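Standup notes, protein team

Yesterday: finished cleaning the Salinactinospora qingdaonensis set.
Today: Gfo/Idh/MocA family oxidoreductase structure.
Blockers: none.

Input for Gfo/Idh/MocA family oxidoreductase:
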Amino acid sequence: MSQLGVGIIGTGWCGGIRAVAAADDPLVSSVHVAEIRPDRLAEVAEQTQARTATEDYREILERDDVDAVMISTTPETTHYPIALAALSAGKHVLLEKPIALSLDEADHLIDVAEQQGLTFTIGYSQRFNDKQALIKRKLTDKTLGDPVSVLVSRHITRKLGDKIGGRIKLSPAAMEATHDIDFVLWCLEPARPVRVYAQAVERVMKQRYDVADCMWIVITMDNGVVVTIGAGWILPPGYPNFSATWMEVVGSEGALFVDDSHRDTVLNTMNDGMVLPISTMPGEDLGHVYAGPMQRETAHFLKAVALGRPALVEPRQARAAMEVYLAADLSAERNEPVTLPMGRQQQEQALAASVRPA
């Protein structure tokens, strides 16, 4: 088994996590980092003992000793062109969600990856959340019987909402509910979504960023299962980038309730009062261990490339999740259900409603 040269393009919050995880992985022989902020580039290069560090990601793609890249760039408009350049250069790719801004772009990336015979996967890290993995297992092994309904409620703080809304117009459906859309569609395969109805609330973020505060989405599957997913990003500021999720899965033979609200660990200090550590979606470095799913997802990608195994998140699954959240944005704007798959005109209307730059 040969080791890998790995490039990390974009070393912000998520990219920094992936860079450190790659540097610590025995499957990795060298780390190469690209970041447009010189101070952050120097910081991550030192943390990871990177072999090379550059402000131009194309220098990484030109290297013969780089086998795979992880793309964690913002704004999200950069995902498609950088991923396309990486795949065209023959690199295996892990791309943070969203896979692209349009279904045409997603289809193009998938086609290029397949033509090149490359591993191409999308960063849906919540598939690597141990609590959610239990849901997948209990549906797969039929402990719950036939699925009947799924409910997911996810909320993050406005600190993250400000960060996302301030860089591009992408809705809570596209940036938060997308994790749950992907996860539920994966759990319910081979069932497929056929209808989407959504409602958005616009009271806090609308005037500043032209995005909704939260969105509630009802998805009807072709086998009659009903999925309800709510996502919002206006909780008061919390520590650290607090995320809280509640999930209910009801089947013909049982039900599973998952509390992932991070209320089980409370830190109380004289300086900061009561806070909820270990509460971010990607997870946190605790020194000798990493608590959270993103490190596990990164290790999985590296192993998939090194051993020639399939990655857990197939790009066509990411495209399916994308079509659902685009339909949700269109439904919320029109105040009417949207039937899937969307036609060309609906796709164009959904794109116009969802992803105009701020």
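Follow-up from PR in the comments: The chain has a mean pLDDT of 95.
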